[in-house]
Amino acid sequence: MLWPKFGAISLCASVALALPRSPASIRKREDQERADAVKAAFQHAWDGYKQYAFPNDELKPVSNSFGNSRNGWGASAVDALSTALLMGNQDVVDTVLEHITTIDYTKTDTEVSLFETTIRYLGGMLSAYDLLKGPLSNMATDYTKVDALLTKSKELADALKFAFDTTSGVPHNNLIFANRTYVEDNGSNGLATVGTLVLEWTHLSDLLGVSTYQDLAEKGESYLLNPMPTSNEPWPGLIGSDISIEDGTLQNANGGWSGGQDSFYEYLLKMYVYDQSRFGQYKDRWVLAADSTIAHLTSHPQTRPEVTFVAEFRGQTQSLNSGHLTCFHGGNFLLGGAVLGEQKYIDYGLALVDSCHATYNATATKIGPERWSWDPENVPADQQAFWEENGFYITVEYYDLRPEVVESFYHAYRITGEQIYADWVWDAFIAVNSTARRGSGFDAIENVNVEGGGTSFDNQESFLYAEVMKYFYLTFAGEAEWQVSKDGKNAFVFNTEAHPFKVVGGS
Ligand SMILES: *[C@@H]1O[C@H](CO)[C@@H](O)[C@H](O)[C@H]1NC(C)=O
Ligand SMILES: *[C@@H]1O[C@H](CO)[C@@H](O)[C@H](O)[C@H]1NC(C)=O
Ligand SMILES: *[C@@H]1O[C@H](CO)[C@@H](O)[C@H](O)[C@H]1NC(C)=O
Ligand SMILES: *[C@@H]1O[C@H](CO)[C@@H](O)[C@H](O)[C@H]1NC(C)=O
């Protein structure tokens, strides 16, 4: 229940209590303060970017310079747009909308990742279009710039779509626009890079009323929904990580919920959330993968048997490793449990949320590492005590401003309503704000397990704006139709870059 924690109900709130309003409309004062603190942090990061990097892709906050790792189209600006909208930050919204009208998506000198471009740029523009045409139309100060979001999305998809021009229809991922060729990719593409296009390309098709873009993404995805050979599906629904571009066959039986595979599983469920009438098969595949994960990948570390990790796999052999990217899984199981009305997925999701929290709670900075292991055979001598206390040891020690742990805390808070999860989000915000806030913005840090986080990377990824700040903010921002809903009926679904898309048939 959203009651003030420390007694003192303001006059305003007590008047509100007398009225028949939903509990959600009664905001806790501490939530308001926390939401405002997140907005201030977002503004700080934006101001640094605006001053030293805009309209380039990302801020280098320590040297006050910029990088262009995402084709030089202004990745941070486009990624910041949906968060700025949800925060009601009109100044940032107007700046980014103006910028988008100036981008030429047909040209770039650098290699283009189909996957990264889809989730950040296409996702960012389509989400802003939904919000500005829908619940945030009050923030649309210039309708031509709102319509430009859709025409620019089409321009971008048209520039990218030669990627799918292959014998099987499985796309190449790394593209060279100048001569419409591909970077040498040994004839295969990854599970996540093939399987994390269908939401954005389908939504674009739906908005334009033409099937072209959906057809392209669904053709590539079809090999993942009907995987061959069956030997590379070691358990029902859990499949290998490498796809032949020539014929769509799986090249191995190695995988899991970690980086490189992760958002394929995420989107199986989210396609169903997006449109239950069209994507029932995706839901069925998610259920198979989720049940196989519970049955075959659940793993409890020897030194902390109450902790629940999800192992990676090589065939039917577990590999006792996980990582920050993997920690979206708690939120995904929670979403699945709410949407499908299945308590077992909620319970499992909460166990995963606890274990991801444990990786944050264990370190000197209170931020979790990039990768860890709980394989008792390989414990480094200098982490013996850490392993015994925490049930895992760190194998890759940096933090790259990733969102997944907070994303799962957010889902746990929305779906259970329990304050502890909001407090964990706040703890993570305080940790990131005190350790990774450096120079003119936020920075990846070298080592989460030394006081202060060690040396700087001098790089602020665009997903700091799209994801990290958004999940921090939404936790404290109160009810709105874009929030993940406890009852499993969602009007919006978040793409893997946390850009909310209006679902089909949603109110
Ligand atoms: C396309 O351009 C890239 C980068 O300039 C170059 O390495 C490659 O050889 C070119 N491919 C063809 C077929 O011209
Ligand atoms: C192709 O390259 C990727 C990335 O280096 C690698 O993971 C994959 O195993 C390779 N696939 C084949 C069939 O050699
Ligand atoms: C977090 O770590 C502290 C010790 O630093 C411990 O007392 C506490 O119980 C841990 N919290 C959780 C939820 O495990
Ligand atoms: C975040 O960090 C800034 C700079 O150190 C500080 O002024 C601000 O109070 C911090 N926010 C919170 C909520 O601690």
Q: What's the CATH class label?
A: Mainly Alpha
Assess the beta-strand content as a share of residues.
Answer: 5-15%
**Averaged pLDDT:** 94
CATH architecture: Alpha/alpha barrel
Q: Which fold name corresponds to the CATH topology?
A: Glycosyltransferase
What is the domain total for the residues? 1
Shape: globular
Structural class by sheet pairing and helices: mainly alpha
Distance between the termini: 25 Å
Number of strands: 19
| Major β-sheet profile | 3 strands, antiparallel
Radius of gyration from the alpha-carbon trace, in angstroms: 22 Å
**Residue windows where pLDDT falls under 50 for at least 5 positions:** 1-25
Spell out which ligands are present: 2-acetamido-2-deoxy-beta-D-glucopyranose
Number of helices: 17
- How do the strands line up in the largest sheet? 3-4-5
What share of the residues lie within helices?
40-55%
Binding site for Ca(2+): 496
Signal peptide: 1-18
InterPro entries: 6hp_glycosidase-like_sf, Glyco_hydro_47, Glycosyl_Hydrolase_47, Seven-hairpin_glycosidases
Protein name: alpha-1,2-Mannosidase
Overall description:
Strand 18 (492-494) and strand 19 form a beta hairpin. The protein is built from 17 helices and 19 strands. It has one domain (11-502): Alpha/alpha barrel (Glycosyltransferase), CATH 1.50.10.10. The strands form eight sheets. The protein has a three-stranded antiparallel sheet. The longest helix has 24 residues, at 29-52. The chain is mainly α. The structure holds 2-acetamido-2-deoxy-beta-D-glucopyranose (4 copies). Disulfide bonds join 327-356. This is alpha-1,2-Mannosidase. Keywords: Calcium, Disulfide bond, Glycoprotein, Glycosidase, Hydrolase, Metal-binding, Signal. Belongs to the glycosyl hydrolase 47 family.
